[in-house]
Amino acid sequence: MSDIHRDLEFLHASFQPVAETWLHICKDDLGIEMRVLETLRDEDRQVELKRAGKSQVKLGWHNVGLALDFACFDEKGVYDTDNHSGLYTKCGLVAEAMGGVWGGRWRMRDYGHWEWHEGFTLQQFLDGGKKGVV
């Protein structure tokens, strides 16, 4: 079993301040009870998740520190797994306003996920083709 990284310090240096601001807005300004579940993933963890059917990719934005997963809790402190409270939508809209991609918009919804890569592909990132980020 691989380690699960939850701290924002494990995110890519370009994403850390964005994620910190997002977390502050969601928690402090909007009053949403939430926490970060996972930031950076190593390859072993990604393989585990793919085998378990919890990820569809061999390599993704988590593997380069440009994605995070989070959980929201309703007013009773109950973990909201399907956005019935609308809290994930609020957090997702904040992420999108900051230039992020929110998993709640995908065909296979991933409400508690967002990634920040400013319009470039993972391959461009891996190839070092994005100035100022890599």
Protein described:
With 134 residues, this protein is α+β, with helices and mostly antiparallel strands. The protein has a single domain (8-126), classed as 2-Layer Sandwich (Muramoyl-pentapeptide Carboxypeptidase, domain 2), CATH 3.30.1380.10. It is 29% helix and 15% strand. The chain is built from four helices and five strands, in the order H-E-H-E-E-H-E-E-H. The radius of gyration is 14 Å and the shape is globular.
Features of this protein?
single chain; 134 residues; alpha+beta; Muramoyl-pentapeptide Carboxypeptidase, domain 2; 5-stranded antiparallel β-sheet; 29% helix
Quick structural gist:
This protein is of the alpha+beta class. Helix content is 29%, strand content 15%.
> What's the end-to-end separation, in Å?
29 Å
CATH architectural category = 2-Layer Sandwich
Q: Given the structure, what is the number of helices?
A: 4
Number of domains: 1
Pfam family, one: Peptidase_M15_4
InterPro entries: Peptidase_M15C, Zn_M74/Hedgehog-like
Organism: marine sediment metagenome
GO molecular function: peptidase activity
